[in-house]
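Figure 2 data, in text form.
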Amino acid sequence: MKELATYLADHRFAELFREELGWDRCAGSLATTVDDRRLVFDVIAHKRGLQVLQCAAHRQILLNRGLLRRAQRAIESRFHEHIVIWCCDHPPKQVWQWALRMDDGRRLRHREHPFFSATPPPAFLARLVGLRCSLEEEADVSIIDALRRVRAALDVSAEQNLFARWPKFAERSDELAVAMSNGEPGAFDEFVLLHRPLARHYSKWLQHAYRMDAEEAEQIAMIGVMIAARRFNPERGLQFSTYACYWIRQVCQRVGPDTALLIRLPAHIVQRFFPLRRRLGRVRLQFGPARANEELESRYLNNERFYRQWLGFERAVAVRSLSDRRECEYRQARRLSQDTPTPADECLSHERDQIVRAAVEQLQPRDARFVRLRYGMDGLPQTLEEIGRADGITRERVRQILERAEGRLRALLHKHA
């Protein structure tokens, strides 16, 4: 099977059928026009009249399942029983296509198997072995046997689906992606606006989960679209919608709660408790409040930390307004201390600063200098790499020195306290 994978990766289909599978040599070509596209098919092998054709096409054609089927109907009158192999070099992709004529004699049942040439599905390779004809059985193979082997290999559901749902949209997206990678002015803006429906689709999750406004949720999802557009490489062969869904989901999970909630919650709290809150809501609607309380108690019965986090989460989510006088949150917010520090706070902060600086001076000279540089006591904070570059040592060595110095500094501050 490794040999078969090598032939597929290099697009050496003629050698694959003639040398590995034992099919007969054949030559010829057929040119046809489908949807204003000129396609040239080369006949590379045959077995008892069952032809194998190869067509090198643009990657946009390989995304269009309908175009491939219309092309197969066009060549069906010339080659009654056949296999069509569509291939593309940039990126290396291929589609194996076969059609079975139904019993009524008019309709065709198409089968397409698309995959990236470097990573063919193992199940497809295993079925491809069934097309091999050895020298011993060459005399006994008939057209019926060849059709039976081809049907066993290709008349199954494909392991992958690389076809675009809307081919025209995918073609326009690919054109703009290439123009964007070439630096054409205005291509990025047009590319992002073209995929605005993708952002609108994923923003529905924010509307459902956090009851956000539709327009606000869509703007958050558009941030993910723009991040994905800057990172997208059309030469990899993926559709942008497949690539962008990861970045849109990440932005929605990170930015969505911060925008929807009046009180910011840590990301791990949101990811842990919001699904639980929705589940408890469904249980409460279906079985009543008592069942929901029992399930919640079973979770925090032996976990006091979970109980504290859950209570804080519930209080934060329950806040609806900090500006409406009729809401209790407004009166509670008015009682909170102001952010402006008082003179007493400034005096205590200055005193703590003096104590820490005095403790730092008691360290070794190099340790004290590293601590001051790291924490910006004499200017802007510096990274481990910047500190090490000045002294000619690695950042790991700087980290070890700082760890030792911080341990001594904690001991000195503990004695002072």
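Caption note: Strands lie at 24-25, 29-34, 37-47, 50-56, 82-89, 92-101, 108-116.
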